[in-house]
Amino acid sequence: MNDPDAIEVNFDGLVGPTHNYAGLALGNTASTRHRGATSSPRHAALEALAKMKMLMDLGVQQAVLPPQDRPDVSLLRRLGFAGSDSDVLAAARRDALRLLAAAASASSMWAANAGTVSPSADSGDGRLHLTPANLLHNLHRAIEAPTTTAAFRAIFHDESLFAVHDPLPAAHALCDEGAANHTRLCNQHGSAGIELFVYDRLGIDDADAPATRFPRRQTREACEAVVRCHRLDPARTVFARQNPDAIDAGVFHNDVIAVGHRNVLLLHARAFVDQGTVIDELRRRFTATCGGELHVIQIGDDEIGVEEAVRSYLFNSQLVTLPDGSMAIIAPSECGETPRARAVFERITAGGPIRSFRLVNVRQSMRNGGGPACLRLRVVMTARERAAAHQGVFLTDTLYAALTGWVNRHYREELNPEELADPRLLEESRAALDQLAEILGLGRLYAFQH
């Protein structure tokens, strides 16, 4: 199968009205470093939209995923808080401030964790497969799965072309962090590729695993389950284990230390356990499946150490194909302010498959530990699949103008963590989401709308 009209669409998460710095994700060093700081939901949302518009203007197709209803009052009710919505929020603020913070998190903005996607060219039944991530490791993320599943099914609604699976069962052995630990490599988007799944622990029996300072979030069993659900050919899948030393340096997902696109894999030399063997297997399977050469670009400690790469988010960049066929890297502006990171980009774009790099300002997201790649979910789609998907989420100049106007009308300029219990914030957020569902044509996506 080779569909020349297949392209990679970036589905970016819209930043929600409750974007704040609660520092909930242990192991995400930027998140914990900015815990308690004042955020700007409006600036965060506009920065993310500006990134989408920049990519759209470059000729990269963009779409959006809606944010979630936050604070999640239903979660707090299930945890024993009672009364009106304002009573529930006040009681949670008084008795369980961290639970309130989890219920109010806008973390669904990082769409790389929304799920894992396998294109129709790779699946055994010729459909595009999506599995929403259960994100079990962190409470503030585990509550996202139901709305993410509903959004996927509203967008990818034609079951003859799309298979939207349920999230994997909510079990410690099946922790799944989505596409942040998944990379697809190919020559052309519409032809068969190989899929790389990265894990950092075994879910059933991992007694001999090295101890880490920070948590290990993704299990191999979860990766293997997604492979089966997506009907992938085992001969075209590769599993790699995250380097525990990298985890301790703040690499909580693989997309913090590696990024791949088409026939290019850019990664740090300390990304995986037994990295030489992993790369050899990737190259062998790539040649057997795709033909041609897999370009592996390894960056060593002599160019930039893991800790500095994490601070600058060098590897949390987006690799994209431009309309002229050249490949560009979209990096956070922090890389331009980090001499060693900038030097890496200048070297790798001086020759080889990546021809240029561009810097983008997503500072509000970066302070919470999410760079450009965290904000997007890559979905390879044929022309027929794009036509069959819900059209209201595909970014156009008109939709961009509508969304920026919507943000400016509904979002607060500043938000402090102690304001998460403000019942007016809940009212403002729901009014915004109610209008957004109308703008995107998604109907009654949220429970409060019923």
Question: Summary?
Answer:
The chain has a single domain, classed as 5-stranded Propeller (L-arginine/glycine Amidinotransferase, Chain A). It has helices spanning 29-33, 41-58, 73-78, 85-95, 97-104, 139-142, 145-155, 220-229, 244-248, 275-289, 306-312, 333-336, 339-348, 363-366, 383-388, 397-410, 423-440, and strands at 7-13, 62-65, 115-118, 128-132, 162-164, 182-185, 194-199, 237-241, 258-261, 264-268, 295-299, 318-321, 327-332, 354-360, 376-381. Helix content is 35%, strand content 17%.
Which features characterize this protein?
three-stranded mixed beta sheet, alpha/beta, 17% strand, L-arginine/glycine Amidinotransferase, Chain A, 450 residues
- Spans of at least 5 consecutive residues with low confidence: none
Secondary structure tally, helices: 17
- Per CATH, the architecture is 5-stranded Propeller
**Count of DSSP E strands?**
15
Radius of gyration: 21 Å
Rounded mean pLDDT is 96
Q: How would the global form be characterised?
A: globular
| Structural category | alpha/beta
Gap between N and C termini: 43 Å
Helix share, percent: 25-40%
CATH fourth-tier homologous superfamily? Succinylarginine dihydrolase
Strand content: 15-25%
CATH top level label? Alpha Beta
Biggest sheet architecture: 3 strands, mixed
The CATH topology comes to: L-arginine/glycine Amidinotransferase, Chain A
Give the count of structural domains. 1
Give the neighbour order of strands across the main sheet. Answer: 2-1-15
